[in-house]
């Protein structure tokens, strides 16, 4: 317990991290902080990474073997280039690459693959040389640049330390050795006496002591811990270590301590962690030693007495790893407040539900509780006493409810109760000197059993605010002097329930009522008056309950239940309401106290806050408030009405549901207003991001277009107040402004269009204007059909298609023109020629009319020409009719033509045709040429072959049309050159369609014609 009297510092309190907070196991054997600011905790069952809010556990286990003569503990050692060196279970050496969170085991080292026995300790030098001490009495210098290894004999090295003079200290079971390293190596040997020392005149010492740990403070003094021989120290320039046992009899340090860890903190203290004896903190400036051990009743005590390691983080916080209690954390920013609770007072002392506070001239603290009497805390000897008062006649309810306290100039304590009247107690003897209550005699009478508030008045008198009888002026000797209530006619109070009293000036008293607002009393004239104020009237109309008042020219401040704090300028009447929207942590204000800088300290249902009023109260925002919570050392987040007091020495005291909080405002160390934020996790499409780079180090995130839903967890790297930071984020390219996320450290985005974004996040306790910004570039690649190359390709393809359509159209027009030209040519060649012949034959027949036989010949020829003309015209019309596009129609016409020709000539013929012609289509030209080839072959047989029998076979095979035409005619010599066009026309048409024709003929035996061409 500590009452924090003037001039005293707050005793150290610790915040403990255990398995209840997510730690993987309770034995923390080593601790390290990396370059990013994360804290790493090695336990028997897992490696823990801590960011102040969350623990991430890696499945690596560490040894925890402790003896009074030596220990084998796992290690975490900082390496170069974002790495940590680990000595895991069994003395296995591993390297953790923080950049990609991968572990690399080192079972052997060097170009010669030297096998490593179990490793006891390791040190990574800035020259990139790794010093490795192993359990077979060897020490290796492993140059990671050259992959070369130099070894030396060294007895049981338990620790390696490099001091500010670049001298290496090797701690062994037989003292220590010092050595310098040059060019990545040093040589050591064994002297004749078997002790260990380097060969080049390097010193050894404490050869009969098992050395465990060493550190160097700011003055370059070395502090060396041992197993069973306590603590040694050596100042700069001195030759030898000397045993350190304290400064005097009052600050004694045992000489037989088993010391596992020593840490010289940046603040000047030396922290000594022992096995079994807890923690010692040496303050060299004050020449004091403070001993800390576990107190199971105090949640802010050291977590366990077996201390294994002590490390300092980048913010100056001290982390103490214990063998069974997890880790204890000390930071001066967590050490602002002293408190009295059940955890640090005797069991018979009442301290819960504090309702009233006062201090006496000796610094003693009087504490009124809600139902368990009055407790006195003596600051001179840290003793306690709780007093209970007998009930007054006709007392109401619990007579032990003390709700108001005041110490007068004579040292007497006025005690206002709820239901048991008003008492005056001798501040020295603690005896009741006077009692006032409704049934008392004339000099002891007051109209009410409940006294909510007490304020001093001149002449050994007090003003007392009652629950049901208004305001009373009471003289300690003569009793009730004056009463102001709502019952009286004329000069009446607004109501009878008076909750607060505040002096405006020497003649004006401000009376705060629970429900009716504010009224003023001119103490010289005795007149009550009000100052009209629409804002306050509006609060009253809304049923607002007033809790406290405080005045400092020209502002009257009013705390309310659920409506925040109201500030009223008594000169201008301007009124300002300050609530949680403007930065107040909670809208219920129980108490208001000023400090020496005129800052206001407020107690609420969410801790205590410091309010720095700006010049213009219209501009109040979060930056004007500093909030402190139970985690900062308060008795609780919830405080009580009436439980606030400012001592004569400047201490502020606030009471709540668990006890009393005490502090010196000028000694408050504020938390960092901003902190660097790291992104701790990323999710893509609700799945953890798999990446070759840890999120804390990742700068650019590439995603395909299908992975366009992302979310991030982030944390401010501050171990004192991580959950009180407010986060602000923006996705540049998507969000148009910064978004205030409060203390929520998570954000999600869905359905992000492809593009380049920059995710930005920052954190601040107040406003984020000067906070560092963490950025992550996010590139969501578009689908291939939205890429530039694809769009260019599409444009080119479209242009090609349009050009193809254009060419197709041109070709169609050309084809149409060609058809027209062919039809015209055919009409001219076939029909025109025939008509000319008919005309000539007609003229000749006219001349031979008288010669019947010759005229008949001409007429027969005219009839033949007409038939041929009709047939040619029919061929032309058939070839251009689209209904004849199928091969089936072509073959059918071929069948009809063969029948017409051979039936008329009495030639026996046979046709073999397949049934699958209907599924094939021929274009107009191909259809025409196919028929004309057939027709020409049939006509040749009809006109020249003198055949009696003809066999025709037409079939399709492998996309080709085949025609075989055999006759038994007279045949001909196929090698004989002829001037006729029939065969030439057939060949031309066959070549036109990339076909082939073979003709074989034997005179007297007939001719075989074979035709084939592809169907297109």
Automatic annotation (TrEMBL):
One annotated Gene Ontology cellular component of this protein: membrane
GO molecular function: phosphorelay sensor kinase activity; protein dimerization activity
Transmembrane segments: 788-806
Keyword annotations from UniProtKB, A to Z: Membrane, Phosphoprotein, Transmembrane, Transmembrane helix
UniProt superkingdom: Bacteria
Keyword Metal-binding (UniProt): no
InterPro entries: HATPase_C_sf, HATPase_dom, His_kinase_dom, Ig-like_fold, Quinoprotein_ADH-like_sf, Reg_prop, Sig_transdc_His_kin_sub3_dim/P, WD40/YVTN_repeat-like_dom_sf
SUPFAM superfamilies: ATPase domain of HSP90 chaperone/DNA topoisomerase II/histidine kinase, Calcium-dependent phosphotriesterase, Quinoprotein alcohol dehydrogenase-like
PROSITE patterns: HIS_KIN (PS50109)
Pfam family, one: Reg_prop
Domain Histidine kinase, residue spans: 826-1016
Name used for this protein in its record: Histidine kinase domain-containing protein
């Amino acid at each position: 317990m500590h009452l924090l009297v003037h001039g005293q510092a707050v005793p150290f309190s610790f915040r403990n991290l255990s398995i209840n907070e997510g730690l993987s196991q309770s034995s923390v054997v080593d601790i390290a902080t990396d370059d990013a600011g994360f804290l790493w905790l090695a336990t028997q069952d897992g490696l823990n990474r801590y960011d102040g809010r969350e623990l991430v556990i890696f499945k690596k286990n560490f040894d925890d073997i402790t003896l009074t003569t030596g220990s084998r503990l796992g290690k975490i050692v900082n390496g170069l280039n974002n790495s940590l060196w680990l000595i895991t279970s069994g003395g296995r050496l591993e390297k953790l690459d923080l950049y990609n969170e991968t572990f690399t085991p080192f079972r052997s080292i060097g170009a010669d693959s030297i096998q490593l026995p179990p490793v006891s300790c390791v040190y990574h030098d800035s020259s990139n040389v790794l010093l490795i001490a192993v359990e077979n009495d060897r020490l290796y210098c492993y140059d990671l640049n050259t992959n070369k290894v130099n070894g030396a004999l060294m007895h049981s090295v338990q620790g390696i330390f490099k001091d500010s003079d670049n001298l290496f200290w090797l701690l062994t079971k037989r003292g220590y050795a010092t050595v310098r390293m040059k060019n990545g190596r040093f040589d050591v040997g064994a002297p004749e006496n078997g002790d260990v020392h380097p060969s080049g005149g390097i010193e050894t010492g404490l050869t009969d002591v098992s050395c465990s740990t060493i550190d160097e403070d700011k003055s370059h003094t070395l502090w060396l811990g041992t197993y069973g021989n306590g603590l040694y120290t050596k100042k700069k320039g001195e030759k030898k270590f000397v045993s350190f046992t304290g400064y005097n009899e009052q600050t004694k340090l045992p000489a037989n301590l088993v010391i596992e860890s020593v840490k010289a903190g940046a603040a000047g203290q030396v922290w000594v962690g022992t096995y079994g004896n807890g923690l010692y903190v040496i303050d060299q400036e004050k020449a004091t030693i403070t001993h800390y051990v576990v107190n199971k009743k105090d949640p802010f005590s050291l977590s366990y007495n077996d201390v294994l390691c002590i490390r300092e983080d980048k913010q100056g916080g001290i982390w103490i790893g214990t063998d069974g209690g997890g880790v204890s954390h000390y930071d001066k920013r967590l050490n602002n407040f002293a408190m009295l609770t059940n955890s640090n007072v005797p069991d018979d002392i009442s301290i819960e539900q504090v309702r009233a506070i006062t201090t006496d001239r000796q610094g003693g603290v009087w504490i009124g509780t809600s139902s368990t009497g009055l407790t006195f805390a003596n600051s001179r000897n840290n003793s306690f006493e709780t007093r209970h008062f007998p009930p007054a006649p006709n007392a109401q309810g619990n007579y032990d409810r003390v709700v108001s306290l005041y110490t007068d100039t004579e040292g007497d304590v006025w005690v206002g109760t709820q239901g048991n009247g008003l008492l005056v107690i001798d501040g020295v003897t603690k005896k009741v000197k006077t009692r006032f209550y409704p049934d008392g005699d004339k000099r002891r009478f007051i109209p009410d059993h409940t006294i909510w508030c007490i304020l001093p008045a001149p002449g050994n008198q007090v003003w007392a605010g009652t629950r049901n009888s208004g305001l009373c002026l009471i003289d300690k000797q003569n009793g009730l002097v004056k009463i102001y209530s709502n019952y009286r006619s004329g000069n009446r109070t607004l109501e009878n329930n008076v909750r607060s009293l505040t002096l405006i000036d020497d003649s004006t008293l401000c009376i705060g009522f629970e429900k009716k607002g504010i009224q003023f009393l001119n103490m010289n004239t005795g007149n009550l008056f009000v100052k009209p104020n629409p804002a306050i009237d509006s609060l009253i109309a809304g049923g607002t309950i007033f809790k406290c008042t405080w005045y400092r020219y020209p502002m009257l401040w009013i705390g309310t239940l659920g409506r925040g704090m109201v500030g009223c300028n008594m000169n201008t009447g301007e009124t300002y309401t300050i609530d949680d929207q403007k930065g107040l942590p909670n809208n219920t204000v129980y108490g208001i106290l000023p400090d020496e800088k005129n800052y206001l300290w407020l107690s609420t249902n969410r801790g205590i806050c410091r309010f720095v009023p700006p010049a213009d109260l219209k501009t109040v925002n979060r930056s004007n408030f500093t909030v402190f919570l139970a985690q900062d050392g308060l008795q609780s987040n919830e405080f009580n009405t009436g439980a606030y007091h400012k001592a004569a020495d400047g201490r502020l005291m606030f009471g709540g549901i668990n006890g009393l909080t005490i502090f010196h405002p000028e000694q408050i160390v504020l938390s960092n207003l901003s902190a660097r934020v790291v992104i701790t996790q990323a999710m893509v499409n609700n799945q953890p991001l798999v990446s070759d780079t840890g999120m804390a180090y990742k700068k650019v995130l590439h995603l395909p277009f299908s992975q366009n839903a992302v979310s991030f967890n982030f944390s401010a790297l501050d171990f004192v107040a991580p959950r009180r930071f407010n986060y602000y984020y923006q996705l540049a390219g998507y969000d148009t402004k910064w978004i205030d996320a409060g203390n929520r450290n998570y954000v999600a985005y869905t359905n992000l269009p492809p593009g380049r974004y920059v995710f930005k996040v920052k954190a601040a306790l107040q406003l984020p204007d000067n906070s560092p910004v963490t950025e992550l570039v996010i590139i969501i690649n578009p689908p291939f059909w939205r890429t530039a190359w694809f769009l260019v390709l599409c444009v080119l393809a479209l242009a090609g298609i349009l050009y193809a359509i254009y060419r197709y159209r041109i070709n169609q027009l050309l084809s149409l023109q060609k058809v027209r030209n062919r039809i015209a040519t055919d009409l001219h060649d076939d029909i025109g020629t025939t008509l000319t012949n008919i005309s000539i034959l007609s003229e000749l027949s006219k001349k031979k009319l008288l010669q019947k036989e010759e005229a008949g010949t001409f007429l027969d020829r005219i009839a033949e020409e007409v038939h041929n003309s009709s047939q040619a015209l029919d061929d032309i019309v058939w070839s251009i009719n689209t209904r004849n596009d199928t091969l089936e129609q072509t073959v059918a016409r071929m069948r009809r033509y063969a029948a017409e020709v051979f039936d008329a000539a009495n030639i026996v013929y046979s046709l073999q045709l397949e049934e699958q012609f209907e599924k094939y289509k021929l274009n107009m030209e191909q259809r025409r040429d196919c028929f004309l080839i057939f027709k020409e072959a049939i006509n040749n047989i009809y006109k020249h072959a003198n055949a009696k029998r003809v066999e025709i076979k037409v079939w399709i095979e492998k996309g080709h049309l085949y025609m075989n035409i055999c006759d038994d005619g007279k045949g001909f010599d196929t090698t004989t050159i002829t001037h006729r066009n029939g065969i030439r026309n057939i060949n031309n048409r066959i070549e036109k369609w990339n076909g082939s024709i073979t003709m074989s003929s034997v005179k007297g035996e007939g001719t075989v014609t074979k035709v084939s061409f592809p169907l297109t």
